[in-house]
Model the fold of this input.
Amino acid sequence: MSYSIDLRKRVVDYVENGGRIAQAAGLFQVGRATIYGLRGRTDLRATKVKRRKKKLN
Done:
């Protein structure tokens, strides 16, 4: 399940306005890796995975 666009915008705005990533992670209950991933994106909408590889054939 992906995070809502509204939540993504609030997290990115918080960090861009001087908030720390660790504080944002605790405040919004998202992982720090998620915040690092969102910071570099221009489009915050969820991406679709076209095809996943199977573990076993």
